[in-house]
Amino acid sequence: MSLDACKKSVNWEYPRQGNSWKQAIMNEIENLKKFDVFKIIPLSSGSSGTKIFSIVTGYLTKRTKASTPEHEEVYKQKCRMCLVGHKAIEGVER
Predict the structure, then answer these.
(1) Residue 40 pLDDT
(2) Which residue has better confidence, 89 or 30?
(3) What is the pLDDT of residues 57-69, one digit of tens each?
(4) Which one, of 65, 18, 44, lies nearest residue 79 by Cα?
(5) What residues pair up with 56 in beta bridges, in sequence order?
(6) Domain positions in the chain
(7) Distance CA 28, CA 11 (A)
(8) What was the pLDDT predicted at 12?
(9) Is the model's pTM score more than 0.85?
């Protein structure tokens, strides 16, 4: 699922069950901030040649154990954001 698909979903802001996609994304961002995972800096503050890493975002709908294809019961929407870290080289700041 993509961010665009989440935004077009009936579960973007006012879901029928569980939390919204928007809330799931905001929860993930708040947790990343809480644990000091990243720091937001102005793009202009980076030196020439500074490497900017992208992120991979995954979206998941968690269902209850009682959920069936005929009667879906959503527990919550989840979002995970991960740095594409395999491109980083330890000790090298780019």
Answers:
(1) 76
(2) 30
(3) 999 999 999 999 8
(4) 18
(5) 82
(6) 3-39+52-87
(7) 17
(8) 93
(9) no
Q: Are 32 and 46 in contact (CB under 8 A)?
A: no
Whether 38 shows a pLDDT value over 90: the answer reads: no
Q: Indicate if the pLDDT at residue 18 is higher than 70.
A: yes
Alpha carbon distances (Å) from 34 to 29, 56, 82: 9, 19, 15
- Spatial distance between the Cα atoms of 84 and 51, rounded to a whole number of angstroms: 12
Helix %, strand %, coil % for the chain, to 5? 30, 20, 50
93, 77, 61: which is closest to 26 by C-alpha?
77
Q: Please give the Cα distance from 65 to 49 (Å, whole number).
A: 50
CA atoms within 13 A on the CB side of 16: 6
